Amino acid sequence: MQRVATCNRSWELAGSSALAGCIAACNHSAGTEPTQAWDTADDAGESAGDASSGQAPEPATTATTATTTPTTDAPGTSGAPADDGSEPTSTTAPPPSCEVATTPCDETTACCEGTVCGDTSLGQVCCGVEDTPCATPDGSDCCGALWCIDGVCAYGAEVPACESPCKQPPALLIEKQRLADLGGSFLGICGDENHLYGYHLPAAVLPGSDYSLEGALNEPACEWYASAIDIGMDWPASREWLMWFIQQVADDNIHDIAEVIGSYDGVDVRYWSDSTGWQTNGIEYTGSGHDTWTHVSVYRSTANEDHRILAGWTADGQAAAAPSPGEHASPDDE
Description:
The chain is of the alpha+beta class. It folds into 3 domains: 2-48, no CATH class; 96-154, no CATH class; 157-318, no CATH class. It has helices at residues 2-14, 16-30, 34-53, 170-182, 238-250, and strands at 115-120, 123-128, 147-149, 152-154, 228-232, 257-263, 269-273, 283-284, 293-298, 313-314, 317-318. Strands 5-9-6-7-8 form a 5-stranded antiparallel β-sheet, covered by helices on one side. A two-stranded antiparallel ribbon has the order 1-2. Helix 1 runs antiparallel to helix 2 (16-30). It is globular, with a radius of gyration of 42 Å.
């Protein structure tokens, strides 16, 4: 560009004929076309401008010598394009995605969080466990006996007709289903001929003086509902569950429990209720049995509600957080 600038100065001094001769001399001396020096300089300027500010640069105010430099590749990058500053494209394969609910599965399938490989009306598929979000009207994305209720997988029970004979209420039918999924033995809700009083019998067959009818919380939701369940302690985490359960009632995390009879070790049988307190060790139980099963009574007025007595437990231990805090009130023993 120094030569071009010199010719421009000559034009100012000698006119157009002198300029033509000057350009010819410049061409002969540099061995290049006159436009090449401009093109090379302009391209270099635009490239530098793009890299630094995203805009083309202003015209240069000082003249520089135009030279032709052979193009060479950087070592080991023959034919490689210039680095434009963009992020390199990763060639690492993404981790395998999980399988969503209702996808057929087996023991090798990675089901998404909150789902497991289980059985539904669709067969063996990835399906939701209790409290997992769901979307199918028929509950086919929820495992086993779980229903899709208000957008989450949950245990449900139809409300039985309130008529003779004794009926198992929804609250305890739900726990019966949970117990079945744990692999524990279900030992009954409606009492047999050996039960003469208490929560295993419906209010309709009891005298008004029965302790299980005392207080407003024992106003029956249905006079034909029994209100106690016997839970077999033959699943691996059952004794651990009982200790947790008593503490949850004591802390008001599980509420509306009238009484509990059971044993932490299968030998020493204890009794807990609102009237005797929910201390860890309760009081001595003077009746018989309840070493291999746990008796749980709920207040009769709450027999249509889910108390989440076994919620969040698997056969081998606790799998979920405790239910939301609540309240409990008061009756007696069995």
